[in-house]
Design goal:
173 residues, single chain, 42% helix, 16% strand
């Protein structure tokens, strides 16, 4: 079965580590949404300047195009993407030709700030976390195919073990 899992949440929630582990566990490729950012967006974030919606639309459309390509080709993939607002998730969902699952890594600001403070060599600076939490619209009950997990008390390994039975099996499994 073809499907895409989007691992979403604020910076420091564990999107990359969880996404990489999940991709290995199910035998699907992993892509970090940061690779879809323009150099201008990366430069802004490196300078400690938060992105605005106008910066994000081309980025979200590029991620959407990747999701559509994976599903049209009958493949599976795991992507990490903050997808902080419902409208961003709606862009990713628009007319997808298959199953799209969001894994929301929900955590407290205190725990995530501690994780960000320990990170090195990343363009997302700890001081930008406030803007991430201000923008965050946690997925609600009306949003399809969303699985929410608490990252304050769960490791990436625990999350993947919890998630595996809930996911479809890839065609190559």
């Amino acid at each position: 079965m073809s499907f895409v899992v989007v691992v979403m949440g604020t910076a420091g929630s564990g999107k990359t580590s969880t996404g990489e582990l999940l991709a290995r566990a199910i035998g699907c490729p992993y892509k970090d949404a940061d690779t879809f950012h323009s150099q201008a967006n990366i430069d802004k974030m490196t300078a400690g300047i938060g992105l605005v919606d106008e910066d994000r639309w081309p980025w979200l459309n590029a991620i959407h195009d990747e999701i559509v390509a994976v599903l049209r080709d009958g493949r599976c993939a795991v992507l990490s993407c903050s997808a902080l607002k419902k409208i961003y998730r709606d862009v990713l969902r628009k007319d997808v030709p298959g199953r799209l699952i969001f894994l929301f890594l929900n955590g407290s600001k205190a725990v995530i700030a501690q994780r960000l403070a320990q990170r090195q060599n990343h363009f997302m600076k700890p001081g930008m976390l406030d803007s991430q939490f201000a923008a965050l619209e946690a997925p609600g009950a009306g949003e399809p195919d969303v699985i929410t997990v608490d990252v304050d008390s769960s490791s990436s390994k625990d999350i993947v073990e919890f998630l595996l039975p809930l996911l479809p099996k890839p065609d190559n499994a």
